[in-house]
Automatic annotation (TrEMBL):
Its cofactor is Mg(2+). InterPro entries: MoaB/Mog-like_dom_sf, MoaB/Mog_dom, MoeA-like, MoeA_C_domain_IV, MoeA_C_domain_IV_sf, MoeA_linker/N, MoeA_linker/N_sf. Residues 185-321 form the MoaB/Mog domain. Pathway: Cofactor biosynthesis; molybdopterin biosynthesis. This is Molybdopterin molybdenumtransferase. Keywords: Magnesium, Metal-binding, Molybdenum, Molybdenum cofactor biosynthesis, Transferase. SMART domains: MoCF_biosynth. The keyword Metal-binding applies. The keyword DNA damage does not apply.
Length: 413
């Protein structure tokens, strides 16, 4: 068992773009009330059924008038003729030389074109005097200035953030049509693995990957269709893989290295195609990727940090795209100044775990979380970013610039 694969070194970028070309987005959709649609992906374009705002309205508490009733600098004195509150518009008419009291969000009547905030006004009886400062059209939010009825408002493929959810409500929509969540199967391989909560036998460890990878997949928008510990037995692995084919994406962990009990890629190759790539990276070099029955299969390495990092760098984006999301699914990276030294040798990409912050001078700075063993999940728990070091780079000295992938984008849905 375990023949040697001749693996071809491929760049990080090539592996990522090839993976994207095998993504098959889900087709099923469902209608959800907007309060249940957070982080879901819109499956159809939304055209605005309303103007936003529907009427001209005031951006300030103050007074509304026709600007031509004031001097060119906006100063003057006008007579108070009424009031407009949010929800209670002014329905009368104003005569030349008149103004109305108006509140933020209240409709600006058609006979007015300008609002002056009350801080620039002084009131004496029914007369209001305005200091100069506001120009024609000042402080008026115009009908349809944000969105016009019948115009595109939210494109299909948008992941609904809290702001988009707010916008769907602004448009008066009660429900939205979204893609069904991509279904992910998680197989953790290894004779040593024990489900947490069970007594630990000799030579055994608790299965961390099933849970961390399931949590990561959920953060990427997936639903967990199956989660299973599989023994280091090719028959059992083959059977589990067949069961896993009901999911849209399959994630295994463990058994991809060169050990005598590392069967995953060979068993997977019996059912589908395993690409013979090797991304020279640390952690994660043993990772394998393939396609089985049209489904993307990620064989993640067993070491818990290697499994999590390879998930974030390769599987996360594929799962998000499988979920119908369009556009760039990667959170923005930033450059930061190394606060300490980062050990590194040229020839492989390294995804070290770091802690970045904005220092007293307003600069982004980053330091290591300490020991970088891929067996130590604490090296990741204590960090807030990946320090992404390019292949040809050597050790990083304090003061040098490095690329940082913050977890707040990677680990949020
Ligand atoms: N001779 C070589 N040995 C190893 C190499 C190599 O190139 N040559 N690569 C190392 C690297 S890098 C990694 S990463 C691991 C990957 O190995 P596998 O994917 O085959 O994983 P396993 O051997 O099954 O396990 C590795 C390690 O992780 C623990 N593990 C596995 N699954 C889980 C789980 N679900 N939860 C928690 N911990 C898990 C397992 O007990 C091992 O300690 O191979 C290196 N070896
Ligand atoms: O993928 Mo490994 O984590 O570098 O030990």
């Amino acid at each position: 068992m375990n023949p040697t694969f001749n693996r071809r070194p491929v760049s990080y970028q090539e592996a990522r773009s090839s993976i994207q070309s095998f993504v098959r987005p889900v087709r099923e959709t469902e209608e959800l009330p907007i309060e249940k649609a957070l982080s879901r992906v819109l499956s159809e374009d939304i055209v605005s059924p309303v103007n936003v705002p529907e009427a001209n309205n005031s951006a300030m508490d103050g007074y509304a008038m026709k600007f031509s009733d004031l001097a060119a600098d906006g100063s003057g004195t006008l007579r108070l003729a009424g009031e407009s509150f949010a929800g209670h518009p002014f329905t009368g008419r104003i005569e030349p030389g008149e103004c109305i009291r108006i509140m933020t969000g209240a409709e600006v009547p058609d006979c007015c074109d300008t609002v002056i905030q009350q801080e620039l006004a002084s009131v004496e009886g029914s007369l209001v005097s305005f200091a100069a400062g506001v120009g024609r059209g000042g402080n008026v939010r115009l009908r349809g200035e944000e969105l016009r009825r019948g115009c595109p408002a939210i494109p299909a493929g948008t992941r609904l953030t809290p702001a988009w959810i707010g916008l769907t409500a602004t448009l008066g929509l009660r429900t939205v049509r979204v893609y069904s969540r991509p279904r992910v199967a998680i197989l953790s391989t290894g004779d040593e693995l024990t489900d947490p909560g069970q007594p630990l036998g000799k030579g055994r460890i608790y299965d961390a990957n099933s849970f961390s990878i399931a949590a990561l997949a959920q953060r990427a928008g997936a639903e967990i269709a199956m989660r299973k510990i599989v023994r280091d037995d090719p028959k059992e692995l083959l059977q589990a893989l067949e069961e896993a084919l009901e999911a849209d994406v399959i994630l295994t962990s463990g058994g991809v290295s060169v050990g005598a009990a590392d069967f995953t890629r060979f068993v997977a190759a019996q059912k589908g195609e395993i690409f013979n790539w090797e991304v020279p990276m640390r952690p994660g070099r043993p990772m394998a990727v393939g396609v089985v029955a049209g489904k993307l299969l990620f064989c993640l390495p067993g070491n818990p940090v290697a499994a999590a990092v390879t998930f974030l760098e390769f599987a996360r984006g594929a799962i998000r795209k499988t979920g119908g999301e369009l556009g760039d699914v990667d959170p923005p990276c930033l450059t930061a100044t190394a606060e300490g030294r980062f050990k590194k040798r040229p020839g492989r990409y390294e995804m070290q775990r770091g802690i970045f912050r904005i220092d007293e001078k307003g600069r982004a700075v980053v330091k290591s979380t300490g020991m970088q063993s891929s067996a130590m999940l604490t090296s990741m728990c204590r960090g807030n970013c990946i320090v992404w070091l390019d292949k040809d780079r050597g050790a990083v000295e304090p003061g040098e610039q490095v690329l940082v992938q913050p977890f707040f984008g990677l680990l949020d849905s």
